[in-house]
Amino acid sequence: MFTQQLINGITVGGIYALIALGYTMVYGILKIVNFAHGDVFMVGSFLGLLFVQNAGMPIYIAYPAAMLVTAAVGVVIERVCYRPIRIKGTDALSILIAALGVSIFLENFAQLVWGTGTHAYVQEIKEKNYEFGNINLSNIQIGVIVLCVLLMAALYFVVNKTKIGVAMRATSQSITSAQLMGINTEMVIAATFGVGSALACVAGVLVGTYYDAVYPLVGYSYGLKAFAAAILGGIGSIPGAMLGGFLIGIVETLGSAYISAGYKDAFAFGILILVLIIRPSGLLGKKHVDKV
Amino acid sequence: MKSLKKILAAALTMALAVSAVGCGAPGGSGGSGGSGDTLKIGLATPLTGASAEDGKAIQEGVNLAVKQINDQGGIDGKTVEVVAEDDKGDPSEAATVANKLAQDESILALVGDFNSSCTLAGAPIYNDAGIVQISPGSSAEAVTDAGDFTFRTITTDAVQGKYLAKWCVDELGYKNIAILFENDDYGKGLADVAQRETEGLGAKVVVREAYEVNQTDFSTVLTKVAKAKPDVLIIGGLYNETALIAKQRSKAGIGELPIMGVDAIYSDALIDLGGKAVEGIKLTSYFSDSSESKVTQDFIKAYTDEYGKAPGTYAAYAYDAALIIMDGIKNAGADRAAIRDYIAGLQDFEGATGTASFDKNGDVIKEPLRMEIKDGKFTVVDK
């Protein structure tokens, strides 16, 4: 059972990690916590469903389209709700409140459009189960894990090896200095929100496909776990968010498996508290970590 | 000064006269104040607030029952009238409504409240005033001890749990039981009953795990269930999670494991969301549109004709509650205490939600229906 549960933990952990990246990238650059990110994840999931079910697109067009639209949603949220406050130079608390407002708006908007109930998700990909001894592994589960790892590797490459990556890292060190060096920081900020939201959309589609359900408040619990993952790994650190996501997924799964499933959330947030007591800046939250 | 005293005396005399008439009204056959030809029954239900949808269904159920009686000429030639009050699903509001209804002597009995907390808030007031309340929706254990004048047409969760256990162990022969329940008072209560009753019948609970309401990932608990190798899975929770559990069980290699539940999963949403995976789920329930009972079928037809939509469970419970009250008025007369005594002794009353009797605590005793999902429909089955 251990291997099986470990795989379950890695699957959900990969999803937490994808969402956590959005939190950590935005924090790295702007030092704000975008509490609407969990709901962007929900919107992404619904858009994937909408494009396939209502617009009848094949999934290889629908899902990239959903990613693009979700990215646009992220950029618009930043431009309309955060930038005016940011430019006025008000403290981070005002932006935090604005983020909570956006979160409430998105949740209620989704309830108006899609209703309050739970929807079944598109099952375009036929699920196949493979048995290896005592272990059950499905093609979707393998896909979730592989996709999470690939996307994280791609992001790591972009941030560390490309020009926009250099611009992102420069902006995260100091917005003013980056501007003086001729970097269009507003573009970098928009790109950060866009990439983070697109990753959240992937996570949303994966949750929909793998667990076969989406509802307007799904972003709350996933968003909270992913936020905890970002903090656990050291907020602002990209490898930290990945590590944190997998760690929270594995710990809550193994805790549920061997102690009691009723305390699932307690395990996830318990490990967070434990790590913060020992390392207040998170696991990889060093002073000179490569922030986005 | 003298004239003032005279006026005061006259006013007092008038007041006395009026109150004397007021006292005489409910006892006397003629009554007064224009209500001579009507009999009033109360309704306390949430018409606004979070439970408004269920509250409205209850109002429709009651109105339908009253309309049917009136169309047949009323009770002893008198028309029945419903006095509806909105308790907003809020216990403090329910107490205000209770005072209002209890103090109106012309109201003979009432249907209400819906939420258990509201029923419990109104119960002391109704019991002090000596007026019968019949709740169409409060299944909490505590309502049992609410008083001699508090009845309900819905059974406690324990009754269904007990019945389910008997069906599962004695008749279907399952010996190794898995229980999954939602992590709150409702789910835990149901899980406790299911465990106690199945073990009492000689079965063994091999795994028992909680999940959160609104959870989407059931892989962990289902892997645990699979490892314990149960014969059946009993779910103490609602339809959304049940549908997801049914769908995700194949991932854990237990796609064929039978699932059983209670009427909390009786919703079309279970089938919409669960699709093929929920086929064969067995559950207990009191109200079903596929019931063979004539009373139930007549009710469904009348309700659909009247409101242009199919009735839900609570409309049916409310319909039964109103029928029982009017049956009481008919047989015991327009007297609050006599109605209470009549209802307390009621045996085998045929309603839309089955054949009802009341125990000494005012809890309804009735046999649930057995249902199974077949070809995407809830179907009544024998076994």
Outline the structure in words.
The complex is a heterodimer of chains A (292) and B (383). Chain A is an all-alpha fold. Chain A has a single domain, classed as Orthogonal Bundle (ABC transporter involved in vitamin B12 uptake, BtuC). Chain A is 75% helix and 3% strand. Chain A has 11 helices and 2 strands; from the N terminus they run ααααββααααααα. In chain A, strands 1-2 form a two-stranded antiparallel sheet. In chain A, strand 1 and strand 2 form a beta hairpin. In chain A, helix 9 crosses helix 10 and helix 9 runs parallel beside helix 11. The termini of chain A are far apart. The mean pLDDT of chain A is 91. By secondary structure, chain B is α/β, with parallel strands linked by helices. Chain B has 2 domains: 193 residues, Rossmann fold (3-Layer(aba) Sandwich), CATH 3.40.50; 128 residues, Response regulator (Rossmann fold, 3-Layer(aba) Sandwich), CATH 3.40.50. Helices cover 45% and strands 20% of the residues of chain B. Chain B has 12 helices and 15 strands. In chain B, strands 7-6-8-9-10-14-15 form a 7-stranded mixed beta sheet, with helices on both faces. In chain B, strands 2-1-3-4-5 form a 5-stranded parallel beta sheet, with helices on both faces. In chain B, strands 11-12-13 form a 3-stranded antiparallel beta sheet, with helices on one face. In chain B, helix 5 runs parallel beside helix 6, helix 8 runs parallel beside helix 9 and helix 11 crosses helix 12. The longest helix of chain B is centred in the first third of the chain and has 26 residues. Chains A and B meet through helix 1 and helix 10 of A and strand 7, helix 7, helix 8 and helix 9 of B.
What layout of secondary structure does this protein have?
The complex is a heterodimer of chains A (292) and B (383).
Chain A: H1 2-30, H2 37-53, H3 59-88, H4 92-114, E1 129-132, E2 135-138, H5 139-161, H6 163-173, H7 175-180, H8 185-211, H9 218-233, H10 238-258, H11 264-278
Antiparallel strand pairs in A: 1-2
Helix pairs in contact in A: 1-5, 1-8, 1-9, 1-10, 2-3, 2-4, 2-8, 2-9, 3-4, 3-8, 5-6, 5-8, 6-8, 9-10, 9-11, 10-11
Chain B: H1 2-27, E1 38-45, H2 52-71, E2 79-86, H3 91-103, E3 107-112, H4 116-129, E4 132-135, E5 150-152, H5 157-171, E6 176-182, H6 185-200, E7 204-211, H7 219-228, E8 232-236, H8 239-248, E9 259-261, H9 268-274, E10 282-285, H10 294-307, H11 313-332, H12 336-344, E11 349-351, E12 354-358, E13 364-365, E14 369-374, E15 377-380
Parallel strand pairs in B: 1-2, 1-3, 3-4, 4-5, 6-7, 6-8, 8-9, 9-10
Antiparallel strand pairs in B: 10-14, 11-12, 12-13, 14-15
Helix pairs in contact in B: 2-11, 3-4, 5-6, 8-9, 11-12
